[in-house]
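Task: encode each sequence below as structure tokens.

Item 1
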Amino acid sequence: MADDLNTADSGASKDRPAQATTVKKNGYIIIKSRPCKVINISTAKPGKHGSCKCSFTAVDLFTGKKMEEVCPGHATVRVPEVSRKEYGLTYIEDDGFMNLMDGDTNETRADLKLPDNELGEKIKGEYEEGKMLIVTVLSAMGEEAVIDCKEDNSTY
């Protein structure tokens, strides 16, 4: 069974199986090969010829697109492994790539671009004001995106 799981470069699983009835609101599910956050679940009672049906309404974690899925309650669905990590913003390149530092390991990375939305404008504006920022990066199924930023009020 472990052989059929999709794996990331580190050997960690990108997703795991779960019974449809165990997925909860604000949880995660994979719909049409995309990691999504569940915003609504409705279940229909079992009928004369089968089990209950679960109807999921979810939003793609990276595109914001609304998606829907209907499946039997006993069916196995895929649930993505989602992680969040905070990085200190050290510099923004002219091409929009951010230099980020992991506060735990002091390793740097420069492979994430500023988001093309209000959050990206907020990060750039506050950085140009000289504020020390911490950005939150969401990772799932080999994709990463900056989803939040806050001012670093810690003293060193």
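Item 2
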Amino acid sequence: MFYPFVYGDLSYRCIDNPHIWNNSINQCQTRADGKTVKCSKFEYLPGEDFEDTAVAKYDLVCDKYDRKRWDLSCLMIGQMISVIFSSMLVDYYGRKRVLQFSTFSSIIVSISYLFQPNFYTMCLCRIIGSTLNMSKALTTVILLTEVLPIKYVRFATSVIVSLEGLGIALSSIYSMIFPKWQDFILYRIILLDVLMLIMAVLFLEESPKWLLQKTKYTEFKDLVAKMFKQNNTEMPKNIQKVLSDISVEQDSENDGKISEVKTFLKVYMLLKTKRTALRMFSISLSWIACTIVYYALAFGKELFDINLHSYYILNGLSEIPGAITQMTLANCLGYKWTNVVSLVSCAACLYLNYFLKSNASWLILTYINAACTKLFITTATTNLYVWNAQLVPTNLRAIGMGLGSFTGRLSSVPMPILFSYLNNIGSFLPGIVLGTVALIAGIFSLNVPETIGNVPPDDIEEFEALGTKNYTNIKSRRIEMLTKIGEKDV
């Protein structure tokens, strides 16, 4: 469900006792039998921003007001579940199957939003939906990393993030024209989910690296032949020879079997030395900062005190320059320093917001600062997906991305309740806490090596050597060995 339809407020009236109704707005109590009691029935009045929201459907007012924050917690729980199971399913069933299943299932879940009888079932639906959406995001990044040349991965990721930001902005405009959340859900299903499902079914191919890793040689050979056919190119005889010599005996033996290396052993392999453990800890801190700040911006009205519709249009459009900034900085500075600069700059914007909120006459500066905050955190988040994917070795890539993303989602589950508590103490505290987390994560990311200019590691030995002079030697020996094997086969 789109954030404004959960956090947007509506005016309401208590209608428990119409004969003593005094036309009071936002009244939570009424009189019954000479006593003051809680109101149980409300009439909702269309506001300037919305005609109908989840607030009206589930009576999220008065003592139920804070339940609105459960939506974001449910989102984080779903994403946390996704990074646990998606990493295993992606390695077991393949990138293509998981992406197609997640896309189709998310359409079913989106439709079910329209028929939830109460707020609790809506929260359950929200958890399932966010699980599937996160699975789509992780699988897409892994697939892009393994299919596209390294120089095109940054561009493709920036395009996807820009389209997501444009979608948020258009959704905000759409919610102003048709301010009913049921219409918005149908709009999203038709224009986004169904289109993505068609593309996943008709145009998506399996990752060649995954096919080789799982020794699915027949499917790999068919995929290579299909690629040459689609490009109207004749396959060279030496490649035909290599493909014909590839053994297909192991296809049936490995099909359907669980990987020999269990999930917990894969995690242990990533953390077994001080160097690799420090790198995973530092990258996890960046995930925590990006996740908390990115989704905390859903509280835009509380953080920046600006109009809700205007904020979400600005919020979405800011992702486009954020993605472009990531691609530009990564080309100039590399992933490492892009992460440092974007997180530290985001922290500076959040600290600056403390001074802007204290002066209502600086409204324009508040809008600009809100846009810059979203721009920098989008830059960091986009950069982190690609950086993390290229950092961990091929056979541990799904687990490596899942581990970092899991820590980010886990830390974000209690965030809505914590921010509500901090906001009651002082409205400036949430921004200060977010800024501090982003600053610490930016500093710790200096412990993680750069990946631009290096071929991504294929095993844990190369991962540990990444960023050192020895990495080039190890990689060269591997390539030389594979070349000799290939020449021998030919």
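Check on item 2: Strands lie at 11-14, 29-32, 35-38, 42-45. Residues 123 and 356 are 35 Å apart (CA to CA).
End of task.
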